[in-house]
Specification:
The structure is a single chain. With 266 residues, this protein is of the alpha+beta class. It folds into two domains: 144 residues, Fructose-1,6-Bisphosphatase, subunit A, domain 1 (Fructose-1,6-Bisphosphatase, Chain A, domain 1); 108 residues, D-Maltodextrin-Binding Protein, domain 2, CATH 3.40.190.80. The strands form three sheets. Strands 4-3-5-6-7-8-9-10 form an eight-stranded mixed beta sheet, sandwiched between helices. The longest helix has 22 residues. It is globular.
């Protein structure tokens, strides 16, 4: 278990909020402002902007100043090895496609792990002033002085459940397509395009199943403590730990997970 007491966690959560604020200050000046978009992919479209790079730089500077023995895993600026077992996992703009279109569904993701186990998760949307924080078996929604404890709202069955994912085209392999096809056909409502927001809305009791194929650790590490702290379940499609990334699926209850996985295996 990570060497974290409630008091230590509160201190780390406060620091996570500071990281989110710093990233927001670096990112927001570029939102809804026409700017150059670079493509990181050789075979598709993986956009990155100055906002992504500046947001991560701001967070890395704070981490290196306050926790120099902590490692950093960042989408834009790579890996700094840890000397303590702690790693900050950073995605300054999760949902860059939304960002470059001016849609406020992008977020900043800040995760903290200890020897691979999730300790703290922060999801921040500075344009709307909304923040989700989770860890130590609890999750909260915050906006300004408002604060509310999060709790999932389990669907009764797959037939009454809603499901959310980024887009159909991310399911590329036969195994990935099998999961997408079976679950979207079995549920009553499917929505696309929410990126990390969908997982936090599951923790808020509004979404029943959130899933995406081919995630990196910086896409999901921050969301695991938020989901689990609200009573949800998040794993890979094959039931493995989600923090390291992969094909990820989250459920609002164990019963819903069991029903869905039985359908997938069938």
């Amino acid at each position: 278990m990570p060497p974290i007491s409630p008091e230590n966690w509160d201190e780390l959560a406060l620091f996570g909020r500071k990281l989110a604020d710093a990233a927001g200050e670096a990112i927001l000046p570029h939102f809804r402002i026409p700017a150059a978009v670079d493509n990181k992919s050789q075979s598709g479209f993986d956009p990155v902007t100055i906002a992504d790079r500046n947001g991560e730089t701001a967070m890395r500077q704070l981490i290196e100043a306050h926790f120099p023995d902590h490692g950093i895993i960042g989408e834009e600026h790579g890996v700094k090895p840890s000397k303590s077992g702690f790693n900050w996992v950073l995605d300054p703009v999760d949902g860059t496609r939304s960002f470059i279109l001016g849609v406020p569904l992008w977020t900043t993701l800040i995760g903290l792990t200890f020897e691979g186990a999730p300790v703290l998760g922060v999801m921040n949307q500075p344009f709307v002033g909304e923040r989700f924080i989770g860890g130590l078996g609890q999750s909260f929604w915050e906006r300004g002085a408002e604060r509310r404890r999060l709790k999932v709202n389990p669907a009764k069955s797959l037939a009454t459940a809603n499901i959310a994912t980024v887009a159909p085209e991310i399911y590329k392999t036969p195994a990935q397509k099998n999961v997408f096809d079976k679950l979207t056909r079995a549920t009553q409502l499917t929505r696309f395009g929410g990126d990390a927001y969908f997982y936090c809305l599951l923790a808020s009791g509004l979404i029943d199943i959130a899933m995406d194929a081919g995630l990196e650790t910086y896409d999901i590490a921050a969301l695991v403590p938020i989901i689990e702290g609200a009573g949800g379940i998040v794993t890979t499609f094959t039931g493995q730990a989600a923090t390291g990334g992969g094909d990820i699926i989250a459920f609002s209850s164990l019963a819903l997970q069991q029903e869905a996985m039985a359908l997938i295996r069938a």
